User: Which sequence fits this backbone?
């Protein structure tokens, strides 16, 4: 069993869970995310994920933090924690993004990673005037885009004449820090996403769902042909942990009632219906995004720790967690749940990027 790592979603949307929570008012400011990640690092968390949107999918005209400028600032403010910045290839030329990523990788001392997301919120692209190709075409775009990025990270001079990009004798200097490129996380669970992850990702990032479904997905990816080191796996999950299971259930019901007050119609209307994430969670009650409480990390401290161990046995290495209210529950998890996780060997373990 690999060492279990814990991560936290930065509050780039302003809140995880409900926007109606009286103790967790929406705040998508840079300072909040910076302070949260600095605190998470001090508590022993291993990773932080900054999702990427230009337009908020959760609230009409809602504030949202810009991911890449924030990641650069937070890289300077931290010393150990891995920083994962999501990126939509449709928003960045691969040469520009590869250069930006190398810059933040250097600022962080080699702690930077990207999470490639092939886009799912149609209104965002419409507002920007960017054509959003059909689902499978987006993954073909991402595959060509990622191939260029990783080749540029190798330090080589590249020429590329593809269907979507044409590049002539481009080389990025300086190259990756100590010859180790940023790690590549890949989000998305459709067949094209699985193919791309098996071929090119270091970590496959799974949206929260019950253990049997998660295990089946892990096993499917492990069976696929792959060059280089084995694919690793991360899982998104919303945690509600209390002294007793009944207390946790009561808190879940409270958070669900608050979430029911939010107007999510903009998300529902804007989602590409072919996106697997929303097919999985459709008609399932949950708190949080990207599967949220569907992973079942709701219960007593001992129960939540045991469920994390069970997911780890199934192959999950990194648990990327959401909480509400965010700061208080982050502290609670670090104090009560993390020490109970048997598969967690060290609070100071940090993921190293792959060379594959």
Assistant:
């Amino acid at each position: 069993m690999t060492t279990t790592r814990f991560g936290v979603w930065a509050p780039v949307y302003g809140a995880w869970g409900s926007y109606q929570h009286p103790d967790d008012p929406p705040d998508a400011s840079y300072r909040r995310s910076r302070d949260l990640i600095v605190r998470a690092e001090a508590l022993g968390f291993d990773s932080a994920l900054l999702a990427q949107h230009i337009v908020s999918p959760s609230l009409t005209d809602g504030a949202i933090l810009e991911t890449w400028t924030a990641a650069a600032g937070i890289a300077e403010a931290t010393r150990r924690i891995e920083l994962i910045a999501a990126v939509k290839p449709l928003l960045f030329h691969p040469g520009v993004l590869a250069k930006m990523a190398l810059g933040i990788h250097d600022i962080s001392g080699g702690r930077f990673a990207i999470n490639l997301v092939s886009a799912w919120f149609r209104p965002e692209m419409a507002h920007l005037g960017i054509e959003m190709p059909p689902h499978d075409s987006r993954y073909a775009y991402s595959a060509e885009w990622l191939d260029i990025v990783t080749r540029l990270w190798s330090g080589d001079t590249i020429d590329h004449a593809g269907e979507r990009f044409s590049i002539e004798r481009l080389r990025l200097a300086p190259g990756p820090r100590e010859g180790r490129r940023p790690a590549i996380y890949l989000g998305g669970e459709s067949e094209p996403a699985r193919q791309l992850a098996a071929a090119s990702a270091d970590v496959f990032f799974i949206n929260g769902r019950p253990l049997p479904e998660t295990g089946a997905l892990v096993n499917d990816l492990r069976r696929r042909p792959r060059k280089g080191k084995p694919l690793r796996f991360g899982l998104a999950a919303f945690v509600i942990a209390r002294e007793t299971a009944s207390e946790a259930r009561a808190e879940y019901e409270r958070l669900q009632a608050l979430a029911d007050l939010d107007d999510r119609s903009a998300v529902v209307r804007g989602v590409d219906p072919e996106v697997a994430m929303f097919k999985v969670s459709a008609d399932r009650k949950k708190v949080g995004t990207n599967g949220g409480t569907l992973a079942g990390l709701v219960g007593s401290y001992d129960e939540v720790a045991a469920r994390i161990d069970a997911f780890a046995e199934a192959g999950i290495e990194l648990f990327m967690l959401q909480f509400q209210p965010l700061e208080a529950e982050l502290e609670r998890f670090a104090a009560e749940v993390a020490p109970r996780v048997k598969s967690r060997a060290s609070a100071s373990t940090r993921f190293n990027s792959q060379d594959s």
